[in-house]
Write a structure and sequence with these properties.
7-stranded parallel sheet; globular; 18 helices; Rossmann fold
């Protein structure tokens, strides 16, 4: 296919060429991968300013997306890609292959750094989905930090640079400038731009009023931020919450289990890990089933399955995409709808993507964590996306919905959330709508449920 870049894509490519260290904060669907590959090709073969290029990406993206993009575009087909995936010996062989670009999944970054040590020979590093390096205590961040002085270039790609707030950007920016702009340590960064609040032995950080402007001013020379709505004429996306009414029996069982979970906490503090466990259980119950202490599944209601059946029927034969968060939800949906398919791994998964985009899969079931990055699923005639289970992560929600509502989409997309009335579903959806999904919203929601039960 002949590449005719949009103006913003040409700009992004030029910024990569001109900047040794750059963060491209381009929203989903703006073609980050082809813009970056075009720049890498020029740096390798025209400017001779790069020799060995490493791409770090989520596993499925590493397995498929970068190689597929190279084969898709005429001007990139000469690029050779080696995938550093699989077991250790397979990865070692891939390292020795003759290639232009080597691709590795982010979980294997510590292995790669340990394998090469001071013999690190990748002068250019691309981090696809840089927000996955937001935790400075993670092994992947610490490993990359060790070899950062040996790099001449770094490009960071993400559509969600700060999914849970500006605390998230310190670590990725540090990898770009080694602490020049936002201080050498996370502690210094927090002290300068945030207020710390400690309550019940838990410390939270609230952004100072003037911080956002100061932070973005400091990093504007090494970041490029673009929103799809400013550059693309995408079809309309309609978001709808579909209220699901539990049966009398289902409501009775839900309320009993909710009380059993929450009442022991009515006179105690709810800490972060406990809040996560409680909210997870309540969201499971809202979807119709819950794991017991022995990992058995306790059935509560089928209201969401009935609602999904109505949605599939209303789609009149067009494909429907469904996001689930719990394995028992997946099992129940598969039992109710035998035509449903999931994305397999590796080459089988690539075939599933092709089949979906060719309208050969009527009902596709996806987990937001495995479908978050690098999947182009917009070529099918699907217009209906359903969230069977509700989640707290704004980043996962945005990335998942962007699998179909992205560049190349020609149809209006309707995103439906099945929300069980009077349950934790409502709290989770409200948090996403406030764009405040995260630990704080989760904890407040659990405390609110406790107060309701207590009352």
């Amino acid at each position: 296919m002949k590449y005719r870049p949009h103006r913003y894509q040409a700009y992004a490519t030029q910024r990569i060429i001109e900047s040794n260290f750059i963060g491209l904060w381009l929203e989903m669907g703006l073609g980050k991968t082809v813009s970056t590959l075009t720049a890498i090709d020029l740096l390798l073969n025209d400017y001779f300013d790069a020799e060995r290029v490493l791409v770090i990406a989520p596993l499925r993206v590493a397995e498929d997306t970068w190689a597929r993009e190279v084969q898709k575009w005429d001007h990139l087909k000469h690029l050779r890609i080696s995938k550093i995936l699989g077991d250790a010996e397979t990865r070692r062989r891939a390292l020795k292959e003759q290639a232009d670009i080597w691709v590795i999944n982010r979980e294997n970054v510590p292995w790669l750094v340990a394998e090469l040590g001071r013999k690190w020979n990748f002068d250019t590093v691309i981090i696809d989905e840089a927000s996955s390096f937001k935790n400075p205590d993670s092994k992947r961040f610490r490993a990359l930090r060790r070899v950062r002085p040996l790099m001449r270039r770094m490009v960071q790609l993400t559509g969600t640079p700060a999914p849970n707030g500006l605390l998230d950007i310190w670590a990725p920016i540090y990898l770009l400038d080694r602490g020049q702009r936002l201080s050498q340590t996370l502690t210094e960064y927090r002290d300068q731009y945030f207020h710390s609040i400690t309550k019940d032995s838990i410390t939270k950080y609230r952004q100072k009023k003037e911080s956002e402007g100061h932070i973005y001013k400091k990093i504007e020379d090494i970041t490029v931020s673009m929103k799809a709505e400013d550059w693309l004429e995408l079809p309309e996306r309609v978001d709808r919450s579909i209220p699901v009414t539990l049966s009398a029996e289902g409501r009775k069982l839900y309320e009993k289990l909710e009380r059993d979970l929450l009442l022991p906490y009515a006179d105690a503090d709810v800490v972060a890990n406990t809040a996560a466990v409680l909210s997870n259980k309540l969201l499971q119950m809202a979807s119709g089933a819950v794991y017991d202490e022995d990992r058995g599944v306790k059935q509560i209601h089928d209201a969401k399955l009935d609602a999904l059946e109505d949605i599939i029927e209303a789609a009149q034969g067009k494909p429907v995409m469904v996001f689930y968060n719990f394995q028992h939800s997946l099992s129940r949906i598969q039992q109710q709808f035998p035509q449903a398919r999931t994305l397999r791994k590796g080459r089988d998964g690539n075939e599933d993507i092709r089949a979906w985009n060719s309208d050969e899969i009527p009902l596709l079931l996806l987990h937001p964590k495995s479908a978050g990055h690098g999947l182009n699923l917009q070529e099918s005639s699907c217009q209906t996306v359903v969230w069977f289970d509700q989640i707290w992560s704004l980043e996962e929600d945005q990335q998942a919905n962007a699998r179909v509502h992205r560049q190349g989409q020609t149809r209006r997309i309707v995103v439906m959330r099945l929300v069980a009335e009077g349950t934790m579903d409502e709290e989770a959806v409200a948090a996403l709508e406030r764009k405040a999904a995260g630990q704080d919203a989760l904890m407040e929601a659990v405390k609110a449920r406790i107060q309701k039960i207590r009352g």
